[in-house]
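Example S7 (structure tokens).
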């Protein structure tokens, strides 16, 4: 493997076989644990603050804003912990607040952003630009999954198109 770079396709150890399925958490363990700690700390602080908050007159708008903010924090924390990235049949899917799905044939360009020295807290991710102009970030705690998807995009690009065969 080259210094400070991703493994070459032949070095990645992931050979594409029919039916190969790779799956990993979308975020590293440290990020998932940190999101749990943050949500629990906020819940604890809210419970600790309850006596003094009861003394204040709350308008419906203020109360609903705090309630929705708390709900949103819990929801995002849930998805940080349970989000998964899956590669199968030339398709990459990440479960998130909404599922993100990219097929290799839809990809115009991609870039893998991976900082190995920070991988414990910054998850490897892939910026995918689709042929229709859309763009999305796909996260995976295991960079090999993103490399395997990148290899499938390259294979798709190397196949002659139907229009060039005629």
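Recovered sequence:
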């Amino acid at each position: 493997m080259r210094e400070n770079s991703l493994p070459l396709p032949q070095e990645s150890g992931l050979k594409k076989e029919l039916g190969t399925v790779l799956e990993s958490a979308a975020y590293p363990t440290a990020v998932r644990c940190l999101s749990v700690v943050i949500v629990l700390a906020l819940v604890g602080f809210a419970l600790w603050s309850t006596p003094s908050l009861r003394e204040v007159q709350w308008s419906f708008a203020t109360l609903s804003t705090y309630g929705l903010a708390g709900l949103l924090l819990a929801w995002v924390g849930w998805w940080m912990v349970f989000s998964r990235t899956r590669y199968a049949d030339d398709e990459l899917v990440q479960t998130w607040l909404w599922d993100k799905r990219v097929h290799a044939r839809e990809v115009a360009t991609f870039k893998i952003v991976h900082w190995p020295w920070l991988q414990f807290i910054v998850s490897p991710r892939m910026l995918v630009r689709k042929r229709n102009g859309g763009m999305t970030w796909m996260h995976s705690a295991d960079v090999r999954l993103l490399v395997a998807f990148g290899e499938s995009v390259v294979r798709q690009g190397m196949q002659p198109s139907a229009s060039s065969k005629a």
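Notes on this example. The chain has two domains: 9-27+83-159, 31-79.
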